[in-house]
Amino acid sequence: MSRYYEFFCPVKVIAGHAALEHLPYELTAIESTRPMIVTDQGVRAAGLLDPVISACQESEVTIAAIYDEVPPDSSTTIVRDIANLYRQQQCDALIAIGGGSSIDTAKAVNILVSEGGDDIAAYSGAGVLTRPLRPFFVIPTTAGTGSEVTSVAVIADRERSVKLPFTSSFLLPNAAIIDPRMTLTLPPHITAATAMDALTHATEAYTCLSKNPLSDAYATAAVKKIGQSLMKVMDNPGDEQGRLDLAEASTMAGIAFSNSMVGLVHALGHATGALTHLPHGLCMSLYLPYVLEYNLEEIREPLSELLLFLEGPEVWTATPASRRAEATISAIRHLRDELHHHCELPRTLRETGKVQEGQLDQIARQALDDGSIIYNPREASLKDIQEILKKAWG
């Protein structure tokens, strides 16, 4: 537990029924009249741009350009193309509508259109940006990444086969708009994987070395909403209140881990994603119980507390205090089993069908070099990580 800490979240959150209709007001308040939408084809095909466009049509705001070809793993060339379109159409603000990839892409585009030039790699790293960027709004269509309230973005540089990280508080949007209509059409396996992403963000935020009382409040609130709503939404995908709960949980978990950091689950997830291209949320779900077991003796107290939020007061009271940490891990395993039953969300690396056992060594080495590992409550050697991967292999 750190005695000194900082907590920062300047993003305005506009949430709930008809939240989208408030976007034109936000734009006119900053005198933006020609925003650009950055999204992907799936989001557009699902009709999710329609309420945004019609809300803008009713006011004095003109959507000056729409880029709808962001791929799942965005790259530096796409960022350059979008920035050029923004300049050609004389846009004056950015609206990202989508999941983590569209949001990260728009963050990187904002750097280029604000700072100038074509080379996004020049701004990679932390603390490179020195002044505020153009107005930027985020409308998430998945409930998992929390990107709408984080100051980081990751963009692939295809030519050099590396992922470029960008970190700056200037990347934070002016506002995040959380509207349950945007996640109603999410397919079951994406609903499941993104919710597990948010659960991992909250759990690591609550158990890692830089946890603090303010991030704890957001983390526990996120775990409670996921515990109460995830299976309800899996059983009834049209449950608007449940969808809103999961979206709010994702935002709260994003605020939590932005201010407390994450740990070994993320180190393993980043390495696995880079080598096998498995979706990030799925990686989080795969590794979460195995890492919690590894960290168990260092995190017994906070992990015991999470049982109350994940399973509710009756289960918590009925569980002996000495068994609550283990019961939290069991509850997470049970949740993964239920999700596997519902939509075949893999529980082990073997079940994904996309990871070879021969890759585990490389994943372990890459995870050891990942920045997230610094905040893990228990130190991990290469051998420790190899053992965790062996268990996660299944």
Count, helices: 15
Average per-residue pLDDT, rounded, comes to: 95
User: CATH superfamily of the largest domain, please?
Assistant: Dehydroquinate synthase-like - alpha domain
Unreliable stretches, pLDDT < 50, 5 or more residues?
none
Biggest sheet features: 6 strands, parallel
In the sheet with the most strands, the strands line up as 1-9-6-4-2-3
Approximately what portion of the residues adopt beta-strand conformation?
Answer: 5-15%
Question: What is the molecular shape?
Answer: globular
Domain tally = 2
What is the count of β-strands? 9
Radius of gyration: 20 Å
Q: Share of helix among residues?
A: 40-55%
Could you name the CATH class of the largest domain?
Mainly Alpha
User: Distance between termini?
Assistant: 33 Å
CATH fold description of the largest domain: Dehydroquinate synthase-like, alpha domain
Pfam families: ADH_Fe_C, Fe-ADH
InterPro entries: ADH_Fe/GldA, ADH_Fe_C, ADH_Fe_CS, Alcohol_dehydrogenase_Fe
Family: Belongs to the iron-containing alcohol dehydrogenase family.
Keywords: NAD, Oxidoreductase
What does this structure look like?
This protein has 394 residues and is α/β, with parallel strands linked by helices. It folds into two domains: 12-181, Rossmann fold (3-Layer(aba) Sandwich), CATH 3.40.50.1970; 188-393, Dehydroquinate synthase-like, alpha domain. The chain has helices at residues 23-29, 41-45, 50-57, 76-88, 100-115, 188-207, 213-235, 240-260, 264-276, 280-311, 313-318, 324-343, 349-352, 360-368, 382-393; strands spanning 12-15, 35-38, 65-67, 93-98, 125-126, 136-140, 152-157, 162-167, 175-178. The protein has a six-stranded parallel sheet, with helices on both faces. The chain has a three-stranded mixed sheet with strand order 5-8-7. A hairpin with a 4-residue loop joins strand 7 and strand 8. 52% of the residues are buried.
